[in-house]
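SEQUENCE-TO-STRUCTURE ENTRY
===========================

Subject: a protein chain together with a token-level encoding of how that chain folds.

Sequence line: the amino acid chain in single-letter code, read from start to end.

Question of interest: how does this chain fold, as expressed in backbone structure tokens?
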Amino acid sequence: MMIAMIITLSRTYLQQIGLIAALVPALAGASHAQTEHTAPIADLAAELRQFGDIELSIFDGRDDFLRQIDAALGLGAIKDPDQTFARLPRSPFTVTGRKGDTALPTCRIFIPAKVIPDSSIEIFAELMRNWFGTRLHYASTAELTFRWLIFHEVRHCQPDHFGGDALKDHRDEHEADLFAFQELANTQNRSQLATDIIAFRIITSALIAEPSHMTGLSLKRALAGTEQIAPPPAKMEMAAFRTVREMIGQRAKSIATAVTPTNRELIRAITELRNEVDHTTARTGDPMIAEILIALDNAIAHFSPGLHQSVATIREN
């Protein structure tokens, strides 16, 4: 007898903005799929068991992912598997499920093989489409940011994160960010990790993420400084990031020398908009827009100081 299951794919993927043509090339191709975890992944999998029945699965491409899902759950038990898994994220993501109102016992976190720590690809660089380089500058480490993304997914394993409307998804994403940070932060790395993840969320919120993942300001206000500031209402935050994305797209296209702007032209557009905010004495616009533009320019300068400075130098000349 076939058991009908409702499978929830945690929406942790990022949608491309469609601005970039001539980008810094990615590094070598993905690692081969692994039937056995490497030592770092095996240690991480053991560490995550404190949070429940959580399984880490490394996959190399859609066919390998579907093979693993079929072995674990049976594709026949999943409604419209081709549609449900038509597009897989570049980042780690969670597959959870229900049988009726009861959660399936095992929560599976799937990780693309190309972004595991043993690969030569930095996960933050990959998720930012390598627009700011393939080797980023970190206040903490690339390995810690990978762990933060995995612990983020751990929070999605809880039944209260089994999906909802855009506002609930937005709240869930922010909760998962904070959960992962609190689990990993200590007196030695707290400030450094906060700097890296705020910069990452600001960039992806402004340039790449779907609305439910536009949580950069919420994270910034929660972690930046000595006192927490209340996050903006979700609708306002999503609207502000959409407006910033439109502003950047229009400016980048206006200065582009080809049909599609390059990553350097994108950075130039952002720095120009930020400078206009800095030199505006009468702040008649939306202060949230100004906050995003300043934080976005700072985030790019943080991860890629050389590229950011070279674009600024060219603009000044």
Summary: The chain has one domain: 6-234. The radius of gyration is 20 Å.
